[in-house]
Amino acid sequence: MNRLTEIPNPTVEGPRIMIACVGIGTFTGFIFLMVLLLVAGPVEAVIESEADHSAFNAIISASVVALGVSYAMPIAINCLRGRKMLGQRPFVLPEAFAWLGWFNANALPKLGIAYVIVTTVLFLFPPELPVTGSNMNYCIVAFAIVLIISTVQWFIDGRKNFKGPSMDQEILRVDSRNTAASNAQADGDGDGPGGKI
Asked: What is the pLDDT of residue 194?
């Protein structure tokens, strides 16, 4: 993120780059997983070759849960405080992404939070039945340990020394004006009412 300020028009290009990264990651991840499935062999043999699949399951599940919760926190804050807190900004998601938001501006963020809740619950389930001490999902234990360490660290050091990101409102206003001017210029350069295609 610190390199983002070095590109031209970072407040618009940064989100575009992040969205493109999600698409590229989805595409390449799908190919990677398909190749793994093709070369892994029989699923039973792969499962039996794991040394301690309970520990592996806890680590993988806890990382997915922690990632989901970290994504849901800013979305939840946005829903609770309202989108008006965001103010004017040069980059807003295109209407194509607002297919669910036509009846409620917070529909997509709420859908995202619901997705995180569902995946969190599913990743806390045990991988097989009947549940025993050796096949139990210890994700909640791993997640609780990380949460306890983080909370203790916040009270010991974080609340005194943590400084959030600083935003220079004047730079955002100038960048917003430059974006609006370049968009207006691009609209006027084309042959039709929509400008360049």
From this structure: 40
